[in-house]
């Protein structure tokens, strides 16, 4: 975790430094506040949250008569944490009921890091002594099932696959059936992310979920978003949010962008919390998202 924090700080440091440099000035005139706004917008924080943060900062700097840069830093830290939502429940909902496994659906556009996320989540769960089965319901992308199975072998869990080009919903069904038969704790289901048409996506994802729920309730739907895609990622988030009830966000590739403000924008857009962040391609590079750690890394 320390290593992850250091990596995050390296990629995100410019945002924090930029804000602190301006806030530390002797007088904060309109130009200074504009600079703060520009810095936040450039980091993909989004217009609404930027306005909100700037208003809060302006008020507090004035009311509290803040002159000392350290004090300004404390205020900025507090307000960023407040904006991200420190009290959101960010735990993975993976506990089943009635002796059945919890079922976690992982959705998102191809290339965002879905399969990698499923593999790394399996590793996290296994490390917590939970038994896991993987479902390779991304039957569209030729290499996806293979890739998932490789992850499964690495982590030491079984992967349920179907024929290439087969019905994703039936793979989901089979995976949950195996999970129940084997008495495992969690079934993690990888899905296809073809954004060809919204109706097509809705049909496919909706069906996967419905068919799975003939056997056990889906306890979590995680939407994977690539942090480097900015507005594009936001558009995807909106579409997925409309077709399936997303309960948590995984923001991957935060190591590849200095625009960490997307964390704020994306959860504002969907109204659900970021639960995990990806900070590299390695097996251990998925971290639970912690607002305080994140802000500390920004301001390091
Ligand atoms: P999928 O098509 O959504 O299943 O995406 P994959 O899981 O195949 O991932 C696509 C690419 O993104 C792979 O090369 C991954 O190694 C890479 N990737 C996934 N997560 C991260 C991350 O957090 N950071 C970085 N740098 N690369 C990532």
UniProtKB/TrEMBL annotation:
<keyword id="KW-0472">Membrane</keyword>
<comment type="similarity">
    <text>Belongs to the GTP-binding SRP family. FtsY subfamily.</text>
</comment>
<keyword id="KW-0547">Nucleotide-binding</keyword>
<keyword id="KW-1003">Cell membrane</keyword>
<feature type="binding site">
    <location>
        <begin position="190"/>
        <end position="194"/>
    </location>
    <ligand>
        <name>GTP</name>
    </ligand>
</feature>
<feature type="binding site">
    <location>
        <begin position="108"/>
        <end position="115"/>
    </location>
    <ligand>
        <name>GTP</name>
    </ligand>
</feature>
<feature type="domain" description="SRP54-type proteins GTP-binding">
    <location>
        <begin position="273"/>
        <end position="286"/>
    </location>
</feature>
<comment type="function">
    <text>Involved in targeting and insertion of nascent membrane proteins into the cytoplasmic membrane. Acts as a receptor for the complex formed by the signal recognition particle (SRP) and the ribosome-nascent chain (RNC).</text>
</comment>
<keyword id="KW-0963">Cytoplasm</keyword>
<comment type="subunit">
    <text>Part of the signal recognition particle protein translocation system, which is composed of SRP and FtsY.</text>
</comment>
<feature type="binding site">
    <location>
        <begin position="252"/>
        <end position="255"/>
    </location>
    <ligand>
        <name>GTP</name>
    </ligand>
</feature>
<keyword id="KW-0378">Hydrolase</keyword>
<protein>
    <recommendedName>
        <fullName>Signal recognition particle receptor FtsY</fullName>
        <ecNumber>3.6.5.4</ecNumber>
    </recommendedName>
</protein>
<keyword id="KW-0342">GTP-binding</keyword>
<keyword id="KW-0675">Receptor</keyword>
